[in-house]
Design goal:
30% helix, single chain, Rossmann fold, alpha/beta, 8 helices
């Protein structure tokens, strides 16, 4: 059953004509009637001219407006890079000893960064880290010798996007408390990244068929993209 709060929200918003994000953000925020700082989320539907699993998109986006989340970053590296990792703000730093802790199930972190030379040892834990989305990946910038940059990127506001098996991409734009300006900065960064990724896959027509915007406990609206992707 719907709550009294939810029943007061607009109905059949998906039937409303798609509109630009600048027009929809005030409506989305108005619908954030819970006591907590709701997340504002985007949902992209990949063009259904593609076959299932034909597109495998996975990358990271540096969000210029921030994410509103505190990310606990762990680093596995050689002893010579430990100081760099700590100076950059990593929460956990280790080498062989830390790999053994992960092996025993100790994964108290949100993102794991590893140097290339240590990946040989860490790769054996793919069955543990992979299902949780924690395995470092060169394409995502989490297998690197530039530990300082990787940690700072993760801490400053970086999100991963990937499509599921049905061709949907979900990504948090930010929080209700964010200014419209910062939410739009993040939105533009997401579109720019998707546009770049489009050039890396073979598709028929546009990559994105439909886009919806909503809040954690709100209702969704169809979003008109500011550019064709």
């Amino acid at each position: 059953m719907s709550s009294k709060r939810f029943k007061k929200l607009p109905t059949d918003t998906k039937k409303i004509k798609a509109d630009m994000i600048e027009k929809l953000l005030p409506l989305i925020k108005k619908n954030c009637t819970t006591k907590f700082d709701e997340s504002i989320d985007l949902s992209f539907q990949i063009n259904n001219k593609q076959k299932k699993n034909e597109i495998n998109l996975r990358t990271v986006i540096n969000m210029p407006g921030g994410t509103g989340k505190k990310i606990k970053v762990a680093v596995i590296c050689e002893e010579s890079k430990t100081k760099d990792a700590k100076d950059a703000g990593s929460d956990i730093v280790g080498g062989d000893d830390f790999i053994e802790k992960i092996k025993s199930g100790n994964m108290n972190f949100d993102k794991l960064i590893c140097t290339p030379s240590m990946m040989i040892k860490l790769s054996k834990l793919g069955k543990i880290l992979g299902p949780k989305g924690l395995m470092p990946n060169p394409k995502l910038g989490t297998v690197t010798d530039d530990i300082k940059k990787a940690v700072k990127d993760a801490k400053s506001g970086q999100v991963e996007i990937r499509n599921d098996k049905d061709g949907n991409i979900g990504v948090a734009l930010g929080k209700k408390s964010f200014s419209d300006e910062n939410l739009i900065k993040n939105y533009n960064a997401i579109l720019e990244t998707l546009e770049k990724e489009k050039s890396n896959v073979t598709i028929k027509g546009d990559l994105i068929k439909n886009t919806f915007i909503t809040s954690t406990m709100g209702v969704s609206y169809k979003l008109k993209l500011s550019k064709n992707i």
